[in-house]
Description:
alpha/beta, DNA polymerase, domain 1, 9 helices, 6-stranded parallel β-sheet, Rossmann fold, 11% strand
Amino acid sequence: MPFVFDAYGTLFNVHAAIARHREAAGPDADRFSDLWRTKQLEYTWTHTLAGRYQDFWTLTQAALDFCFDRFPSVDRALRSKLLDAYMNLDPFPDAHAVLRALKARGQRTAILSNGSPAMLQAAVATSGLGDDLDAILSVDGLRLYKPRPEVYALVTEALSVQPAEVVFVSSNRWDVMGAAAFGFRTAWINRANMPDEYAGPPAPIVLSDLSGLLTREWA
Length: 219
């Protein structure tokens, strides 16, 4: 049974970039980081809806530039440092242990991400998660972003499985919704204890962190 993980926000902490430069960023650091993430995702959705495509790294840079315009208190000289930090994000503390435990149980593990191949390769190399992953799947070849069903089909094609055999894990509730609509079993990693914004079946398993994956029965 494959366990397939979203990358950004699920395995890798998207706010780690600003955390490395919080003092230099100043009092608007947290709002800056939140908006950077919001705009990054918004751009993936609007480009896909408009029938356009720019890779995730390009959109990440565009979102960052918008944030500098929105928060002029943050020194634009930080741009290259923030981008370098985003290319090499820290994994969440539970990522290593959970991936290794799943592999030890004989489960296949993979990433399915909006991230460009170069971004994903850098993050996986920096984090040391590579040995615990069987596949790293990017939307880049499709030139479409989640939650399009074609993206989730990358998993069934690459791993030669049916949707119902896959456990899809994401911290993004909209991503979990898209994966469930495709037919995956889903686990929502709700680290921030957010309310559920997508009512209706099939409801995901809700966990406060990745370690909860190890205490459930997945027959």
